[in-house]
Specification:
Blueprint (H helix, E strand, L loop, with lengths): L25 H18 L6 E7 L7 E7 L10 E2 L7 E5 L9 H4 L9 E7 L6 E9 L12 E8 L9 E7 L2 E6 L13 E6 L5 E3 L7 E6 L5 E6 L15 E6 L7 E4 L3 E7 L2 E7 L5 E7 L12 E4 L6 E6 L7 E7 L7 E6 L4 E4 L11 E5 L5 E7 L2 E2 L2 E2 L3 E6 L6 E6 L2 E5 L5 E5 L4 E5 L6 E4 L3 E6 L6 E6 L11 E6 L4 E4 L8 E5 L5 E6 L6 E6 L3 E8 L7 E6 L6 E5 L10 E5 L7 E5 L6 E6 L5 E6 L20 E6 L6 E2 L7 E7 L8 E2 L39
């Protein structure tokens, strides 16, 4: 019986501002949501036409598509099939267990049989994530000479509306119900994740929240019957800043309404069901190897962590994680791995009877990362996502600017291919750091030039002297005594002038709006504090010390009207890594805190709006939205872009993803919200895997696994 046919299901859990009754029709629900959304925009302050530009660590290099390999046939490059369409970034797929389509007449016709393959997946078209369904038709005619299949037709549609911008992830389809993670309901608590599991009835659009409020759930998986959902969860303990392995436990609850929720495994993530009482999951063991474990739930009696049997499945000697199962298949599972013998993560099969690995993707594309496998219902295919590379000999267009959807009037939000961007006073050129190197490029991506070859971070343009860019030259993330100095670069003459000479970690220069002075941070006193110097002569003619104390004041920005300087500081808990935003007058008066990202949190890189009334910044205020191991490397896989008024009110989250967004700049002109391609060929797919996966524990000697030819050495 379909569990959703019962009429006594619980009322949907909804945000308190969106109280929706059961008997409301989907159209009236949508109307109410749009009405409330419109009211929030009408009451919000209009800053005038402007743009916010920021960077995301590695994101513009992903080019992910979902691919599949057969399980039974010999693995050869010709056997791999790309399923998704090469548009945008497509990842975290799922094969439905039965033929599905909300409007079957669009899928089937007298001349069209059932699709060769169906897939549910996450895509970032329009700059934000949504969940799509594709019915794919292969050319598998007997006349084909090659073993690879080719997609000859597809039916495609989004499964969720796009009225609410949020991160959506890890979809599963059971019957006509889509189960997935979304961040669209703000937790309202600093450093508390908004990630929660939802179930949407696709025929009506009715959505139920399955995760209790105040709890964060990740990586949901639905049991073969559809009755139960398992998720990795913080429960009540919350996020404490982990960026490698989340301290999650595995909970199981009813898919229909989230009730009968019970913790079944302490310490585990990425659950995957094989039958109604068997769940596979990953964790990093006491020996520090990521491994796959099996949890066997009792078929009778109460279920608890005490009654569940947990067994380790994969041996030490390699990292194995993000397991995938197929309903009823107890012969093998699919896992992502990192072996000491390779720098790339790959997908392998693990034989549950023999306890042996069978490599798949390394034999097809050995120098590409492969992520988050999933298995078809018949156990015949394994899917995963990776960088698509060249399609039919053509490279995917490399973006310089990517439009990020926002419904805020007169504001465009764009992701840029470069760190610490800043715009020239006329708005026609962009300076950015590339670590190493400082570059200048036209706003359309043309005329890219390196203007400084050394390592430098942060950029800001002089508002008066044409073509002058300031930066801090030297290593980033360095102590107070490190040699870093403020330099002025004439980007047209390619001339460099040093404004500080003591080399005591002078960085983050920001000029006053009249171009006469520069505020910057310096470690010359033994602590990183703020100073002001002459914009042309530098410290040679004297300094004004703006802040003083045994803490770090940094990342400063001068307001457009000259009245305020914004900066980040750890002064409440020096050395803790916790930063809050402050403002101060240039004469040293009026110091006050603007916003704090909870205990131990970070709010960094403030930049004033063109009218000086608000700040854009990056923060972990929204905590973390996905298991970090399911993504490429991000130093801080929790940064999102926010705006707030200078008085601390009207906090808004602009980005919703599981990546590291940072170094935003607020531009006093409206940049057309559309993608801008690099006019020249640029390398892509150059991102890193998680750095922690390269740290292999020592292992060898008696009991060493036979497929390792020698003792693994820890990577650098």
């Amino acid at each position: 019986m379909n569990i959703y046919t019962h009429k006594n299901t619980a009322t949907p859990s909804l945000n308190s501002t969106h109280r929706i009754k059961h008997n409301m029709k989907p159209n009236s629900i949508l109307h109410l949501l749009l009405h409330l959304l419109l009211l929030s925009f009408i009451t919000a302050e209009d800053h005038g036409p402007s743009s916010i530009v920021f960077t995301t660590n590695g994101r513009l290099d992903y080019y992910f598509d979902i691919f599949t390999l057969p399980v039974a046939h010999p693995t050869h490059p010709i056997a791999e099939t790309r399923i998704t369409d090469g548009q945008s970034v497509n990842f975290n797929g799922h094969f439905p267990s039965s033929t599905f389509f909300p409007n079957q007449t669009r899928l089937r016709s007298p001349n069209r049989p059932d699709p060769s393959l169906q897939i549910i997946y996450v895509t970032e078209r329009n700059g934000f994530s949504n969940i799509f369904y594709d019915a794919v038709y292969f050319d598998d005619s007997p006349s084909r000479k090659r073993s690879a299949l080719e997609v000859v037709d597809r039916v495609q549609l989004p499964l969720l509306g796009s009225d609410r911008v949020s991160m959506k992830d890890k979809p599963s389809l059971t019957g006509e119900y889509l189960v997935y993670v979304s961040t669209h309901e703000d937790s309202g608590v600093p450093r508390t994740s908004s990630a929660a599991v939802y179930a949407t009835e696709l025929s009506s659009g009715l959505t139920r929240r399955l995760t209790p409020h105040g709890v964060a759930d990740f990586s949901p998986a639905v049991s073969p019957s559809g009755v139960w959902t398992a998720a990795a969860s913080y429960g009540e303990k919350g996020w404490d800043g982990e960026v490698e392995e989340l301290s999650t436990d595995i909970y199981v609850f009813l898919t229909r309404d989230g009730t009968r929720r019970v913790k079944v495994v302490e310490h585990g993530g990425w659950p995957s069901w094989v039958d109604e009482s068997t769940i596979y999951f990953h964790r990093r063991g006491e020996d520090q190897w990521w491994s796959i474990y099996r949890a066997i739930l009792p078929k009778q009696g109460a279920v608890s962590t005490e009654s569940v049997v947990v067994e380790r499945i994969t041996p030490p000697g390699l990292h194995a994680f993000t397991p995938a199962t197929s309903p009823g298949n107890h012969a093998f599972i699919a896992v992502a791995t990192r072996r000491p013998s390779t720098s790339f993560r790959h997908v392998e099969l693990f034989d549950l009877v023999k306890g042996e690995f069978k490599e798949l993707t390394r034999l097809v594309s050995p120098s590409t990362h492969h992520f988050n496998p999933f298995i078809s219902p018949d156990s015949g295919r394994v899917g995963y996502h990776k960088c698509r590379g060249n399609l039919n000999g053509k490279k995917s267009p490399k973006l310089f600017l990517q439009n990020i959807h926002t419904a805020i009037p007169n504001l465009s939000v764009l992701r840029v291919d470069g760190t610490f961007p800043s715009f020239s006073p006329s708005g026609d050129r962009i300076a950015f750091a590339n670590l190493p190197g400082v570059y200048v490029v036209n706003r359309d991506g043309s005329n890219r030039r390196e203007v400084y070859p050394g390592n430098a971070f942060s950029t800001s343009w002089d508002p008066v002297r044409k073509g002058v860019v300031y930066t801090g030259a030297g290593p980033e993330f360095a102590p107070e005594s490190t040699e870093v100095d403020i330099i002025a670069i004439d980007v047209d003459q390619i001339a460099v002038k040093k404004l500080t000479t003591n080399g005591k970690n002078n960085a983050f220069p920001s000029p006053s709006p009249d171009g006469k002075r520069i505020v910057f941070r310096s470690g010359r006193s033994g602590h990183k504090n703020l100073y002001i110097m002459d914009a042309e002569e530098g410290e040679r003619i004297g300094l004004q010390r703006l802040t003083e104390g045994p803490w770090t004041d940094t990342m400063c920005n001068w307001s457009p009207d000259g009245d305020w300087i914004a900066f980040a500081s750890d002064r409440e808990n020096p050395g803790s890594g916790s930063f809050e935003l402050y403002v101060i007058h240039p004469n040293g008066t009026g110091l006050r805190k603007v916003i704090q990202s909870g205990s131990g949190g970070r709010t960094n890189h403030p930049w004033f709006s063109p009218d000086g009334k608000s700040l854009v910044f990056t923060s972990d205020y929204g905590a973390i939205s996905a298991e970090p191991i399911s993504n490429p490397h991000h130093y801080q896989p929790y940064g999102e872009i926010f705006t707030v008024k200078v008085d601390g009110s009207d906090l808004r989250r602009l980005t919703q993803n599981s990546f590291e967004d940072g170094t935003p700049v607020w531009v006093p002109s409206f940049i057309r919200p559309s993608d801008v391609e690099w006019p020249i060929e640029r390398p892509s797919c150059g991102f890193d895997d998680l750095h922690c996966l390269s740290n292999f524990p020592s292992y060898g000697g008696v009991g060493a696994v036979p497929w390792l030819s020698s003792k693994p050495q820890c990577a650098a």
